[in-house]
Protein 1
Amino acid sequence: MCGIVACILKDGSAAPVLLECVRRLEYRGYDSVGIATSDPMIRIKKDSGKIDEVDAELDLADLPGSMGIAHVRWATHGLPTAENAHPHTDCSGEIAVVHNGIIENYLEVKEELESEGHIFRSETDTEVIPHLIEKYMDEGMDLEAATATALRKLRGAYAIAVVSSREPGRIVGARKESPLIVGVGEGEYFLASDVPAILNHTSRVIYLDDGEMVILDGDLRVTDMEGNTVEKEIHSIDWSADMAEKGGYDHFMLKEIHEEPSAVRDTLTEWDEVLGVVEEIGEVERICFVACGTSYHASLVGKYLFESLLGIPTDVILASEFRYSAGALNDRTLAIFISQSGETADTLNALRAANSRAKTLAIVNVLGSSATREAQHVLYTRAGPEIGVAATKTYVSQLTVIYMLVAAMGAPELMDRLGRVPEFMERALKDEDSIRELAATCSDVSDFFFIGRGFAYPTALEGALKLKEITYIHGEGYAAGELKHGPLALIDNGVPVVAISPPGPCHDKTLSNVEEVRARGARVIGVGSISDESLRKEADDFIGLDPEVDDVISPLIYIVPLQLLSYHVSVERGLDPDKPKNLAKCVTVE
Ligand code: AGP
């Protein structure tokens, strides 16, 4: 959470560039925004609110200087106020810092610094960093040494960028457990939390590792915390700037849903990589998926696949619960970590704990992210950058990799069916108008239920998650058979129940559950095969999908109308589906 950017240009004004770059990171946090430039005096504009609101009020691009730093915040320590917005400065205003992460021992450091006379202006953990750097520079250190010394005193996670008018023309960056990349342009350099931020300026990137610092001053040097130079590889990124634009759609989320057929097609080109990884991994007796949120729902589909098609016992553990529940890993267990960002703190911590006890595989979308560097094996989803906070195209891409993995491990017949998924999705997307109309009729309800059995159960959970995160309507996903064990008490006249029932062995039993909710007055929204007359008859509203999509392959296609439904309900309610309140795309805190 939080996004940081820094740039040092050959000439020209840094502030408009910083503003453009930090806009591309707004998915990481939108509680406040701030920019500091140096010419060499440090000048800062910052306030609480989304970038457009703050920009309208402060004209953020109007700052002098060809270098600077910028930040979007997802508040952890301190309310989302102007005082707590980054950049933060030292007492003299000569050192400015942006930070993503959490400094765990900030209270004791702050107390010590206050006793030495430092004046703090915010409630944030971050503010100790500029004051510590100030203290060490006052003792005679240069910016680089003072930053390294300050960081050695701090516990916790950070990606930071620092500028100081005492050392004009220099930016110092550093990372530990929070992402930071270096963009290498023609005589100009960038720092950013994520690649999409800088794609308009360069596609050449260095991935910093934990404990590394970078010094930008017309040249580029990467060091460890002791100042020893570290040689780094420059990677070329094949994502284009256009991929991180809305491309004519009203929102990133809608564009990303419409990109799902191509995301699946592109991910299917990873087949050789999947075969290679399966060969490297060797014999596996048990699978353990670990993930959060939408990635957890993709993992649940994996459980149904591995157990029903290959007979391999499979656990699925929420990453935040991993340390309390994963006792049975061994060298014949394959622990699979699924993460769009590859930076989710809970998932990374679980991966680190599992690495010495099991074979580990990360399935990740963001190139070069932490998970890709820490797992023993890596497979990429080829969804391209996903900017909307709600995961959509990356979910179906994660599913695609999981299906390919199952195919490579013993169910090759899946591959033919996977090849047809993009075409089935394209057909589902054509139904958007009727889903928009449906959304208009259920945008003012307070509760929504999603039910499904077998392969449709994870789809019900994911449908409910999408709805609640972008519409703020209470949505619950249930295994259809569970309703009578409690949730049925919540069903009342007119409560929408989305019944997901693809053709397959669970169909008739799901239909009985549909009858149960109908008998209690629910408004049933059936999602099934277009030729499913029995479901159509039971349902008040019906979303028909290609009859050739059976239950096994259904998670990839049946989620499409549910994503569209949530999107249109959100728009209908006047919300911004790309930036749901209280959430951020990349969750780098536990
Ligand atoms: C879903 O729409 C959310 N963005 C969220 O649940 C997300 O899937 C979760 O935070 C995990 O993120 P990751 O895949 O980047 O690890």
Protein 2
Amino acid sequence: MTYVVNQACIKCKFTDCVEVCPVDCFYEGENMLVIHPDECIDCGVCEPECPIEAIQPDTDPGAEDFLELNRKYSSIWPNITIKKDPPSDAELYQGKQDKLKNYFSEKPGEGD
Ligand code: SF4
Ligand code: F3S
């Protein structure tokens, strides 16, 4: 198994998660992060760090939909290990539905 970032992260990107990962397996897109499924050691420490519950085990119902997205983009986007400020409008997007369809960006983030 692995942990995955789900669509709640899109346009929120609080990045609290990256600071606690012991194997630095978060990767940054323009408006969300993903976890590299083959690098994640399933320690689970990132899950409670996310203030909006955007991280979950891939064994959760529905989470498998995000596994391929995490796999695909973690091989393309740059690594991120240091927390940065969230987007200024992050709070506007908390709890919004259908973020994947409406807001997902394939563009890479800056990483660190
Ligand atoms: Fe990193 Fe552990 Fe979270 Fe996997 S579960 S992404 S290893 S902090
Ligand atoms: Fe995203 Fe939550 Fe991390 S919003 S960047 S998964 S702390």
